[in-house]
Amino acid sequence: MSLMSVVVLACALCAATANEVVLLETTTSSTLGWTRYNPHASVDDTTQGWLEESYPHYDASSNLVSWRSYVVCDVNQAQVNNWLRTPFIEGGQAERLYIEVKFSMRDCTHFPATVRSCKETFSLLYFESEFDFANEAMPTWNSRTYSMIDRIAADEGRFSDNNEVVINTEVRSIPISKRGVYFAFHDEGACISLLSVKVYYKTCPNITINHAFFPETPTAGRDISSIKQTFGQCVPNSVQSVTPTYLCTGGGVWDLLRGSCECVAGHQAIGQQCEGRSLIVVSVLTERFGYSWSRNLIRVA
């Protein structure tokens, strides 16, 4: 396989891999301290709302690790209204944010018949803002203030035995147009362990191809299928032959490359760069009519 073939293949592999810029990752935090709201807590000691605790478990390498998590299980109450809100998350260059939630949920059929409000879903919501202003009362704790993302169910399964916990993973995304966002979890009577939360956005990674450099580009935010056209910059010692453009897809993968740059005179393509050609000086000794002299010939390699 030629060097150029190897380079093109490597670039194709780069273009197929999206980057994730992580803005929040609870599995790496020693404490969370998120804002909680439970309107019944002051009058009913049995209604605890969301509680922060550790989730010890073995990872893929059989190492014992502990994640900070939130749990709630107020199924014995008639009207459950538990809220949990993340800190303010600045979006940076993001136009669309993704939130990945890992959780477990207990099966309602295995509770006694005396439980009053067992549910098997919870709501995921968000609130956009230009600055971090939240406190214990603001934004107000209701579904009219926040925007609904989805009502989340345990699609991968619920559990009834503590020794056989089923972990569900759900990913949702939202477009953002302001500086940052709060995410909120609303429980109305489920028995849930919120094991981990990750918030991130996707980018198409920077890449050099056809002697043009395309910078890391956040995916478009209007919807998941949106695309964003990015213009390439010619590498040093090259000029445009046709304006280079690449489309950054919603999945963070480059697609539909158009145009290219070409090396200027006196330079040659080495991989995706344009490098000057080597000059070889050849001394030629000439003898004529009893005299001798030398001259240099310059050859481009």
Query: Could you tell me how far the N terminus lies from the C terminus, measured between alpha carbons in angstroms?
Result: 23 Å
User: How many distinct helices?
Assistant: 1
Gross geometry: elongated
Beta percentage is over 45%
Mean pLDDT: 85
Give the biggest beta sheet: 7 strands, antiparallel
Provide the gyration radius in Å.
30 Å
Write up this protein:
It contains one helix and 23 strands. The chain has 301 residues and is mostly beta strands. Strands 1, 3, 4, 7, 10, 12 and 15 form a seven-stranded antiparallel sheet that branches. Strands 2, 5, 6, 8, 9 and 11 form a six-stranded antiparallel sheet that branches. It is elongated. The two termini are 23 Å apart. The N terminus is likely disordered.
What attributes does this structure have?
301 residues, mainly beta, disordered N terminus
Give the secondary structure arrangement, pairings included.
Blueprint: H1 3-15, E1 19-25, E2 35-37, E3 51-58, E4 64-73, E5 82-85, E6 89-90, E7 96-105, E8 121-129, E9 147-153, E10 168-175, E11 180-187, E12 191-204, E13 207-209, E14 212-214, E15 217-218, E16 228-231, E17 233-234, E18 238-248, E19 254-263, E20 267-270, E21 273-276, E22 279-288, E23 291-300
Antiparallel strand pairs: 1-12, 2-5, 3-4, 4-12, 5-11, 6-11, 7-10, 7-12, 8-9, 8-11, 12-15, 13-14, 14-17, 16-18, 18-19, 20-21, 22-23
